[in-house]
Amino acid sequence: MKLKNKLRNKHTGFLKNGRHFLIALAFGFVVAACQDVKRPQMPANLIAQDSMVSILVDAYMINAARSIDNRIIVNKGVLLDSILYSKHHIDSLQFAQSNAYYASDLDIYKKLFLKVEEKLKIEKTKKDTLYAQYKRAKELQRINDSVKGARLDSLQDIYPKIKRDSIKQILKAALQKKDTILITKPSKQ
What we know:
Blueprint: H1 2-16, H2 18-34, H3 49-68, H4 70-76, H5 80-88, H6 92-104, H7 106-158, H8 164-184
């Protein structure tokens, strides 16, 4: 009996204390409020998962383009969202509803984003490869230009008196001499 009274006094003392009562009440409201979350219904024009992945990939590429230099895009009047919607033949409402539906199931949404991540990695690899090839071609062009310039300069050092035009003149003179020699030579009879 004494033990029951001690426990009862302890519990009533706990609830009489104002702070503990407010904490318990707030916790009860939070638990009750979280119980009534409704998931969105499947929209009639739901975008297929594969299409949603490609749309999200394009959306991330567009956002990356915006973050690099948005002034050019704004100055040219390019509406990137409109391009995205027209490319995939959807509208903004259809995208928002489909995105909300997929986001309500975290397992499906996680799978979508894993596919998006894979595709973005593939795109990055392609772009990096193309950029490396471009840089290599530029470097080879620079080397070829410097070698060509070095050859002409080194020939000028060895033969400073000979110029391109003078070589043509020497060849012309030699051909004219040959013609005059043939004309003046008596023929054997």
